[in-house]
């Protein structure tokens, strides 16, 4: 069974985003970048399937600038067998990424496609669903548990009333939630081995995909600063403060 995992290079989750002075986007100058955490969970799950003898090959795929090779090398260090980079400097929106992944699915014919449920930079939560629609494949989103039984895929996902289990034939697309697993710590020997693993580069043009943006970002602004709180001595003072606040509002 071949597993394909899509990974994205994003601003590290420990870094506070800075908005450019002109409001045109985020300032990523000298900023630390890393693999999208949800994609890292998806990669970990794919490697665990291989270690359990369920999967025979894990292929990592990323779409973006040449710097995305670093993210793919991390995926290879986690345990992917090889990597594919669709290199482009264009602004990639979810639909464009889904089209690129659809083209690679057509070339690779994986039995299982794993993605993070969303990327922490745009929080779109769209790529997995769009890919399923374009490829005509069944999907299971927000997976908190995954198992393979013969030709059938079982996915447990959290819902408002508790948890539900979905059964799907393969090939299928699954997006990972935080509770799916805890990604492993990448060791130095694994990083060294990753440098020798194959990494293929191709272009959107070679795949016959138009990645021109369909949406335009008008402006990005910092969130409004939160007002400082006040301390009150007793319940009476609290009620007075609330009444005064209500009058102001």
TrEMBL record:
<keyword id="KW-0813">Transport</keyword>
<keyword id="KW-0249">Electron transport</keyword>
<dbReference type="InterPro" id="IPR000049">
    <property type="entry name" value="ET-Flavoprotein_bsu_CS"/>
</dbReference>
<feature type="domain" description="Electron transfer flavoprotein alpha/beta-subunit N-terminal">
    <location>
        <begin position="23"/>
        <end position="211"/>
    </location>
</feature>
<dbReference type="InterPro" id="IPR014730">
    <property type="entry name" value="ETF_a/b_N"/>
</dbReference>
<dbReference type="InterPro" id="IPR012255">
    <property type="entry name" value="ETF_b"/>
</dbReference>
<dbReference type="Pfam" id="PF01012">
    <property type="entry name" value="ETF"/>
</dbReference>
<dbReference type="InterPro" id="IPR033948">
    <property type="entry name" value="ETF_beta_N"/>
</dbReference>
<protein>
    <recommendedName>
        <fullName>Electron transfer flavoprotein subunit beta</fullName>
    </recommendedName>
</protein>
<dbReference type="InterPro" id="IPR014729">
    <property type="entry name" value="Rossmann-like_a/b/a_fold"/>
</dbReference>
<comment type="similarity">
    <text>Belongs to the ETF beta-subunit/FixA family.</text>
</comment>
